[in-house]
């Protein structure tokens, strides 16, 4: 054979094809340091005998029926108050993920896992995940432990989303309404919307396993499906920033009407921005329930003001309280006015659902009642 320089090339092994020629056969490959090796998670799955599996299935069903909500309530209370051992929240996350998945695949009943099906649980799991991710950077000697705990928190977070999907498919209307209220609280908060995406962007193969990446992608997929369904079939999601079209130049005689239209548009955008901030808080107040008392009386029988004028003034008071953020007082005044003027359902019906009352308050918030915002 000839080399590139037209000199003789000697190769000491039989060569079938010229492409198989390599000078790196006897070279020692560089060794990768242990701290630069990809993180490989260890999977240990053991399949028990059939009789044992039946026994464990009955045990899980009995535990869900009789003790799950109580146990999870007391465990979380001890974790929040720092009355437990260090890192006991790992067992809390594992139990949440396992029993919620068992309930979803066995005989789905929301009441059996109601303790961990709430916005507060989403917040707590996200808080633990962010803490684990920060400790991965600060406590590098226990990097693998924090990575495994972050993976466990991610699995619990994904199971919460899957439970929401199961609630959407429930034949019970009250269960679907509860899922809608939870989603309205979650999807309006940027921290919840961008949490999984932030974990996906900050993925590091040296610190996190391939199984973690797979579960993270599945979690993002489930979240996108929930977000798509919420924005598509169930209504619109109001955004804080709107895309404005380019302005065209107008003549001098059209500047006065244009300025008036621009002022009205800015006022509408300002109202929508206020509603974006008020909607999650108002939904949370309605979800908590209770009696909303108010010191104001919607109707004064001794007053000389006509009844229709007092009715319009009561509507303006409800709107004013909503725009000022006094949600409990606004709801109490709305319900009191509903009892005074039940005709035509101007203030809503007496047996309206929470979602209907939320939409009625939104209509009052945006209504033009002849009063500046």
Q: Estimate percent helicity.
A: 55-70%
Distance between the termini: 89 Å
Arithmetic mean pLDDT: 81
Q: Which shape, going by the Cα principal axes?
A: elongated
Number of DSSP E strands? 0
Global structural class: mainly alpha
Report the total helices: 12
As a whole number of angstroms, the C-alpha radius of gyration is 31 Å
Bin the strand percentage: under 5%
Describe this structure in words.
By secondary structure, the protein is an all-alpha fold. The longest helix is centred in the C-terminal third of the chain and has 34 residues, at 255-288. It is elongated and about 115 Å long. It has 12 helices and no strands. The termini are far apart. The chain is 60% helix and 0% strand. The chain folds into 2 domains: 50-232, no CATH class; 273-366, no CATH class.
Task: List the keywords.
single chain; 373 residues; mainly alpha; 2 domains; 12 helices; Timeless N-terminal domain-containing protein
Topology:
Elements: H1 50-66, H2 68-80, H3 89-105, H4 119-138, H5 143-168, H6 173-187, H7 190-201, H8 210-232, H9 255-288, H10 307-324, H11 327-340, H12 354-366
Helix pairs in contact: 2-3, 3-5, 4-5, 5-6, 5-8, 6-9, 7-8, 9-12, 10-11, 10-12
């Amino acid at each position: 054979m000839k080399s590139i320089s037209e000199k003789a090339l000697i190769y000491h092994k039989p060569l079938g094809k010229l492409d198989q020629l390599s000078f790196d056969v006897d070279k020692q490959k560089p060794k990768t340091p242990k701290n630069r090796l990809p993180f490989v998670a260890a999977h240990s799955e053991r399949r028990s005998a059939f009789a044992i599996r039946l026994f464990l299935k009955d045990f899980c069903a009995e535990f869900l029926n009789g003790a799950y909500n109580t146990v999870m309530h007391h465990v979380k209370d001890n974790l929040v108050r720092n009355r437990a051992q260090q890192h006991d929240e790992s067992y809390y996350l594992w139990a949440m993920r396992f029993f919620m998945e068992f309930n979803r695949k066995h005989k789905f009943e929301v009441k059996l896992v109601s303790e961990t099906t709430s916005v507060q649980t989403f917040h707590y799991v996200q808080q633990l995940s962010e803490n684990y991710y920060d400790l991965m950077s600060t406590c590098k000697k226990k990097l693998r432990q924090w990575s495994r705990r972050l993976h466990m928190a991610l699995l619990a977070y994904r199971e919460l989303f899957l439970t929401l999907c199961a609630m959407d498919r429930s034949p019970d209307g009250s269960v679907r309404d509860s899922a809608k209220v939870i989603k309205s609280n979650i999807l309006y908060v940027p921290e919840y919307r961008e949490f999984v995406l932030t974990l996906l962007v900050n993925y590091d193969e040296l610190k996190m396993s391939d199984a973690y990446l797979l579960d993270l992608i599945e979690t993002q997929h489930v979240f996108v499906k929930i977000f798509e369904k919420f924005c598509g079939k169930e209504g619109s999601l109001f955004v804080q920033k709107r895309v404005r079209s380019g302005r065209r130049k107008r003549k001098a005689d059209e500047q006065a009407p244009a300025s008036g239209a621009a002022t009205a548009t800015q006022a509408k955008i300002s109202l929508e921005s206020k509603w974006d901030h008020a909607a999650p808080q108002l939904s949370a107040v309605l979800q908590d329930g209770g009696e909303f008392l108010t010191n104001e009386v919607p109707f004064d029988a001794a007053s000389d003001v006509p009844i229709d004028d007092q009715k319009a003034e009561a509507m303006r008071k409800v709107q004013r309280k909503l725009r000022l953020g006094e949600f409990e007082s606004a709801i109490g005044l709305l319900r009191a006015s509903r009892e005074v003027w039940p005709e035509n359902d101007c203030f809503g019906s007496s047996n309206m659902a929470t979602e209907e009352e939320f939409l009625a308050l939104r209509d009052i918030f945006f209504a033009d009642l002849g009063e500046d915002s």
